[in-house]
Amino acid sequence: MSPSLPPRRALPIALAMILCTSLPAFAQQVIADGDDQTPAAGDYQTSEPVEPGNPAGHVFHALNGGTIVPVGEVNLRTGGMRAAAVRVEGAGSHVALTGGSIVTTGYGAAGISIASGGSAVLTGTRIETEGQASVGVGLEGGALEASNLYFVDLARGDATQRG
Residue 48 contacts by C-beta under 8 Å, 6 or more apart in sequence? Predict the structure, then answer.
């Protein structure tokens, strides 16, 4: 009597389940337009440019009093021209990040951009910019509370840690 083997279709399914769990899953943009968003920990990215009237390139975008507070560490990445990994605009709009990283590669991009009364709190976050004319933090009438940040500007070739 020969040993009993599982059906042949079970092996490919089992292999697919094992292999697919190790691949990173990238979510897209999270927008809090007057509401509260609590995205899961993980990786988020966009690659679209930001053009007037079309903010598709911002990864986390809080506006009109909206808030974004992730459940855990997030890694945000954007490659679009003039895109911000975190954009906070308008009174009462707020984003809070603990740990994780922000990476921008687009021309004129910002790691975090705060305007018109928005606010953000960053704790232990790494901000890396690569594109020409990019900034780690851009403030235009907003507020930033930050501690233990690490900035890397690949276009200029420097790195600094800010307490």
Answer: 54, 56, 57, 80, 83
